[in-house]
Write a structure and sequence with these properties.
21% helix, four-stranded mixed beta sheet, 13 strands, alpha/beta
Length: 214
């Protein structure tokens, strides 16, 4: 669980609490994430921590749980993938990586089976979203002559939801510096690693910034 970010989009809440501990429907965001994994039989978690990491560790050390949870502290900001390098001796099997601000309620075992069946090195979970541009969009020719105006057109995108299924051999290509998941995926593709998309329903995924907090 990548839980080291400052949660800039969620300020001023994150001036007080790190984003994994932001309450959503009377439960912290990261507990929702862990609960989804628990439902699918997973109970071994590693947290990558930086910003307000001691608060996160203290919270879970005082929480009664059957989960095995360990914590790694980044000495400097390592991006969304850089800190995985530190687990090269720890992680020997297929693992899931998830951002601490992504709420995903799916059958994780199906993702795992898809990943293994297709012999993927990285499986990226993605969701289709519709986006309506709230203005009239002007279409012109190369000389600037107006051809037409599309009023509030809709566009469809397949977006990365911040969760991945990864083979441990991928860790070898991660450099010891700040490094983001988009860079890892680009480098994996260059090295001919197999990367596939696993589509999920837009109703089964929410970003923390779009959820009601209380």
């Amino acid at each position: 669980i990548m839980a080291g970010g400052e949660g800039v989009r969620l300020r001023p809440y994150t001036y007080i609490l790190p984003k994994p501990l932001i309450p959503v429907n009377n439960k912290t965001m990261v507990e929702h994430i862990i609960h989804t994994f628990n439902k699918n039989g997973f109970n071994n978690f590693i947290f990558s921590l930086n910003y307000k990491g001691k608060l996160i560790e203290s919270y879970f050390n005082n929480l009664i749980s059957n989960n095995k949870i360990s914590f790694f502290y980044e000495k400097k900001k390592m991006g969304t993938a850089g800190s995985i390098k530190n687990f090269s001796e720890t992680i020997k099997e297929t693992f899931f990586l998830i951002n601490a601000d992504s709420y995903i309620d799916i059958n994780i075992n199906k993702v795992y089976k898809f990943h293994k069946k297709n012999k993927n090195h990285i499986t990226v979970l993605a969701s289709a979203i519709d986006y309506e541009i709230p203005y009239g969009v002007c279409k012109t020719n190369l000389k600037g002559k107006l051809l037409k105006i599309d009023e509030k057109p809709q566009q469809n995108f397949l977006v990365n939801v911040g969760m991945y299924c990864i083979e441990p051999k991928v860790i070898r290509i991660i450099p010891n510096r700040k490094y983001d998941m988009n860079q890892l995926i680009e480098d994996a593709l260059k090295k001919k690693f197999k990367v596939m998309i696993y589509p999920i329903s837009k109703n089964s995924w929410k970003d923390l910034s779009s959820l009601k907090t209380n």
